[in-house]
Each structure stands twice: as structure tokens, then as C-alpha cells.
Specification:
Layout lengths: L15 E3 L9 E7 L10 H14 L7 E5 L3 H12 L3 E7 L4 H9 L3 E5 L4 H16 L2 E2 L6 H18 L6 E5 L4 H13 L4 E7 L27 E5 L1 H15 L5 H16 L3 E7 L14
Parallel strand pairs: 2-10, 3-4, 3-6, 4-5, 7-8, 7-10, 8-9
Antiparallel strand pairs: 1-2
Helix pairs in contact: 1-2, 1-5, 2-3, 5-6, 7-8
Enzyme class: transferase
InterPro entries: Cys_synth, Cys_Synth/Cystath_Beta-Synth, CysM, P-phosphate_BS, TrpB-like_PALP, TrpB-like_PALP_sf
Catalytic activity: O-acetyl-L-serine + hydrogen sulfide = L-cysteine + acetate
């Protein structure tokens, strides 16, 4: 089945724009990859489509079947609209403190949403997804262990960044959640130029930043290889929030807090180098967070 003329065909090929106000350092350029321009509004459209499409091609799932997945938000939204277009039912499990916009968007696309207690976090949502798979026979895509997650970025995001910078990229910065983006892009870029520095943005121990995680050992995504990341930069909740607000006011880029965290870390890198081309992922759109305190 071809998707070129459908909304699925609009996934990817997102804009790469230069930040012209946040940084003014001769010899150093910062580019922002605007993943909120995907039809589902986030970078997660890429792996969501690849996980479902590859499973269908392998025969792991069939039209009319039911998928279940734990999500903190963006992957769930992407899975909700893509699964319906491909003839599948979708049950999404997420913490009850997720923003109202995310829950309503998933339901608007036709997914069933189950909310788990906030105090057990996304880990608790993941545990329930496994339980429903075992008890109900649903298909669990399991974005945290599914190689089709990171391979989506190897096939699309990485090549787009390489081509968009004409191969001049020196540093790539990404928030680390499921770590699919950083793993896939790193794998591709290192094949092109092993000297490109891959930077992962991670919250410090006292911060909670939607879309960025510091996993406890038993929940670290199975496909994550720490050797794919050259440097990890920590960011606080306040730093990520302030940078998200600056992105909107100074660059006209309306994004979520994980993007603020990514750009904060990118600017830390920029301060340490004399020349280079840095690309930071802007994970999603800010309208997903209007009911939170992010823009207050």
C-alpha cells in the first residue's frame, strides 16, 4: 500500500531552521529540527508508523486486531491516528497526570485511554500494558524494546539532518525518552562521519520533564546502547521550562518542555566550542501543554 497521497505520507521531511536570536557566536550555528510539523504533532509519528507498518508487513498483527501501548503522550497520539488509518484498534495507557490535551487528542482519534495512578509513573503504565497483553491477548508494540522504533530515525530523521546541513553537522542534540531518536540518528550519522558528537539531554535527579527520562535500571529501553551517545548533559526542570519560553518568545518556536531541555543542552555545547553546526530536535508543539504551568 502506498501512503504518498495520504496524511501518513506527510510524516517526516520536517523543517530545519536556524536559531537566529538564542545564539550569536561567530563560527557556531544552531539548527532546530521542527518535529511538531508532523501531522500528529510530534517526532513520535515516525516510530509509531514504522512499528505498526513493519509489524503488519511481517504478519505480527492483522487488520481488525487490538494494540496496547504505554505512553507519556506523544507516541500515544501518533499511534492513535495511525492505527485507525491502518484498520487497527488502539488501547493506550498513561499516567493520570498527563495533560488534558493529550488525553483528549488520543480519544478524538478513536483510541481507548486508560489512566494509571500518577505516583507509579510511566513505569506503572508499562506494567499494566504487559498485563493486558498477557491476560487479553492484545498485541504490545512495546516502543521501549522495539527495534522498529529507532530504525524509523535511522531511515528518515538521520538522513534528513545530514542532507539538511549538507553534511556539515558537528553535533546532534536530542532529549532522551525512549531513546529511539538519539539511537537511530546516532547510528546513521556515525556511519556518515564518526566524528559527529552525539549529545543526550537528561533531567537531573530532582527534575521531572515530560518527554525526557532518567530511567531506573530495570526500565532502561532494551535497545539503548550508551556507546551511541558521546556526551550526556543534565538539565533542570526550571532550565528546560525557561528555555521553552525563550524558544517561543525569541525564535517563534512553540514547543514542549523536552524541546526546551534539548535546546538548553545545545547552548551549553555551543558555549564550549569555537566552530560547529549543532542540530537540536524540537520534539513537539507547545499547544499540548497549555493546561499545564509551562507557559505561566
Amino acid at each position: 500500500m502506498g501512503f504518498e497521497n495520504s496524511i501518513i505520507g506527510q510524516i517526516g521531511n520536517t523543517p530545519l531552521v536556524e536559531a537566529t536570536h538564542l545564539i550569536n557566536k561567530k563560527g557556531v550555528k544552531l539548527f532546530l529540527k521542527l518535529e511538531g510539523n508532523n501531522p500528529g504533532g510530534s517526532v513520535k509519528d515516525r516510530p509509531a508508523f514504522n512499528m505498526i507498518n513493519e509489524a503488519l508487513k511481517r504478519g505480527d498483527i492483522k487488520k481488525g486486531g487490538t494494540l496496547v501501548e504505554a505512553t507519556s503522550g506523544n507516541t500515544g497520539i501518533a499511534l492513535a491516528f495511525i492505527s485507525k488509518l491502518l484498520g487497527l484498534n488502539m488501547i493506550l495507557i498513561m499516567p493520570e497526570n498527563s495533560t488534558e490535551e493529550r488525553v483528549k487528542t488520543m480519544r478524538a482519534y478513536g483510541a481507548e485511554v486508560i489512566l494509571t495512578p500518577a505516583d507509579i509513573g510511566i513505569e506503572g503504565s508499562r506494567d499494566l500494558a504487559f498485563k493486558l497483553r498477557d491476560e487479553k491477548g492484545y498485541t504490545l508494540l512495546n516502543q521501549f524494546e522495539n527495534d522498529d522504533n529507532w530504525k524509523a530515525h535511522y531511515k528518515t530523521t538521520g538522513p534528513e539532518i545530514w542532507e539538511g546541513t549538507q553534511g556539515k553537522i558537528t553535533h546532534f542534540v536530542s532529549a532522551m525518552g525512549t531513546t529511539g531518536t538519539v539511537t537511530g540518528v546516532s547510528t546513521y550519522l556515525k556511519e556518515k562521519n564518526k566524528n559527529i558528537i552525539i549529545v543526550g539531554a537528561q533531567p537531573d535527579d530532582n527534575s521531572r520533564i515530560p518527554g525526557i527520562r532518567k530511567w531506573s535500571p530495570e526500565y532502561v529501553p532494551k535497545f539503548f546502547d550508551k556507546n551511541r551517545v558521546d556526551q550526556v548533559v543534565e538539565v533542570t526542570e526550571d532550565e528546560a521550562k525557561a528555555m521553552t519560553q525563550r524558544l517561543a518568545k525569541e525564535e517563534g518556536v512553540f514547543a514542549g518542555m523536552s524541546s526546551g531541555g534539548s535546546v538548553f543542552c545545545a547552548l551549553q555545547i555551543a558555549a564550549q566550542i569555537n566552530e560547529g553546526v549543532i542540530v537540536a530536535i524540537i520534539c513537539d508543539r507547545g499547544d499540548r501543554y497549555l493546561s499545564s504551568t509551562l507557559f505561566e
